[in-house]
């Protein structure tokens, strides 16, 4: 909870204040400073501290657009508490339109970071030391990587009651049981006793209005749940809870065409995709191995044998 004095990055944020700050991420070899804008809104009333962030992976533009829309619409101005927005978390990756940091590291695999580690690790350390301790809740907006498109979903550990409750409140069509990945932000902040909900929607280097809207509405629901906004939570009453999931892999190499829409429910043995060779010699069907929801789809036109092509539910509740 925000107390009377709230200091972030060496500056006090008073009640009712709107502040844009810049964190120095690095000094480039050109001597230019690289900074990361942080937008802070503090209400006049006490309340929780919520962090909204996108672009942990620099090519995941939907997440950036979600936080951007929230700011543009003024939804980040809370009725109580403090909202911190970081639309572009991985500024390096965003500049280069790529997932990684320039040192080749996946920022989401180096947390909590070290002061003298790789460039990504140093940045992770800065966040872990200077921002994470100040927040109570985090919404972290992602998209599928490498041409894989995710139907909007939130990920959490089902065994944790609070996480599941937060996931239901958000109101994405699917909630996916997902254990902590070592050295991810989610794992690092969980160890600090913070609550992080991870949103996945769409694919990298794309802007999908449906996904963006789902993320914005989810954030609003979450703020209503925390009483940082007026009104009732408007999430769908029954998201599909996916307890166990798997990727269906390409049984052959070739041109890949999905015959189903992402987000759809398919019956056992139905034909969900076609893989063909460029010479007109074969056309192989991809068959649904059981009744399942499809919530991730490979949009690559050409696949190798074994590539992940459909992310499907195995066990739902
Ligand atoms: Zn990501």
Polypeptide structure, described:
With 317 residues, this protein is of the alpha+beta class. The chain has two domains: 6-238, Aminopeptidase; 244-316, RNA polymerase II/Efflux pump adaptor protein, barrel-sandwich hybrid domain (OB fold (Dihydrolipoamide Acetyltransferase, E2P), Beta Barrel). It has six helices and 18 strands. The chain has helices spanning 61-72, 91-96, 119-130, 161-170, 185-191, 209-225; strands spanning 6-8, 11-13, 18-27, 33-42, 45-54, 80-86, 137-144, 148-156, 174-177, 195-203, 240-249, 254-258, 265-266, 271-276, 283-287, 292-298, 302-303, 308-316. A hairpin with a 5-residue loop joins β3 and β4. The longest helix has 17 residues, at 209-225. The protein is globular, with a radius of gyration of 20 Å. The structure holds zinc ion. Zinc ion binds next to loops.
Gyration radius, rounded: 20 Å
List the domain count as a whole number.
2
CATH class category of the largest domain: Alpha Beta
CATH T-level fold name of the largest domain: Aminopeptidase
SSE topology string: EEEEEHEHHEEHEHEHEEEEEEEE
SSE class: alpha+beta
Counted beta strands: 18
Shape: globular
Report the CATH superfamily of the largest domain.
Zn peptidases
Taking the sheet with the most strands, its summary is: 5 strands, mixed, barrel
Small ligands present: zinc ion
Strand order across the biggest sheet? 8-9-11-18-16
For the record, give the distance between the C-alpha atoms at the N and C termini, rounded to a whole number.
Answer: 34 Å
Tell me the fraction of residues in β-strands, as a range: 35-45%
- What are the low-pLDDT stretches, counting only 5+ consecutive residues below 50? none
Number of helices in the DSSP assignment: 6
Average pLDDT figure: 95
Roughly how much helix do the residues carry, as a percent range? 10-25%
């Amino acid at each position: 909870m925000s107390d009377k004095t709230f200091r972030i990055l060496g500056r006090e944020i008073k009640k009712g204040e709107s502040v844009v700050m810049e964190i120095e991420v690095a000094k480039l070899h050109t001597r230019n400073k690289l900074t990361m804008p942080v937008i802070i809104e503090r209400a006049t009333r006490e309340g929780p501290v919520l962090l909204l962030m996108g672009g942990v992976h620099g090519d995941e533009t939907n997440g950036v657009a979600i936080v951007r829309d929230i700011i543009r619409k003024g939804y980040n101005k809370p009725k109580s508490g403090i909202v911190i927005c970081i639309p572009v978390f991985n500024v390096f990756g965003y500049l280069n339109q790529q997932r990684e940091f320039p040192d080749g590291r996946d920022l989401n695999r180096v947390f909590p970071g070290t002061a003298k580690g790789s460039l990504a690790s140093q940045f992770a350390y800065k966040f872990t030391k200077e921002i994470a301790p100040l927040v109570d809740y985090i919404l972290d907006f992602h998209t599928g990587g490498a041409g894989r498109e995710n139907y909007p979903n939130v990920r959490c550990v089902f065994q944790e009651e609070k996480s599941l409750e937060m996931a239901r409140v958000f109101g994405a069509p699917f909630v996916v049981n997902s254990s902590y990945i070592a050295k991810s932000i989610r794992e690092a902040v969980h160890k600090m006793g913070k609550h992080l909900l991870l949103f996945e929607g769409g694919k990298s280097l794309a802007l999908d209005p449906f996904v963006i809207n789902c993320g914005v509405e989810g954030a609003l629901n979450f703020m209503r749940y925390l009483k940082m906004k007026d009104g009732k939570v408007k999430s769908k009453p029954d998201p599909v809870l996916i307890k166990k999931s798997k990727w269906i892999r390409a049984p052959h190499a070739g041109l890949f065409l999905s015959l189903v829409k992402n987000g759809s429910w398919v019956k056992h043995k139905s034909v969900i995709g076609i893989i063909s060779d460029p010479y007109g010699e074969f056309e192989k069907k991809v068959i649904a191995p059981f009744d399942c929801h499809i919530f991730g789809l490979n949009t690559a036109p050409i696949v190798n044998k074994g590539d992940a092509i459909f992310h499907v539910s195995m066990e739902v509740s």
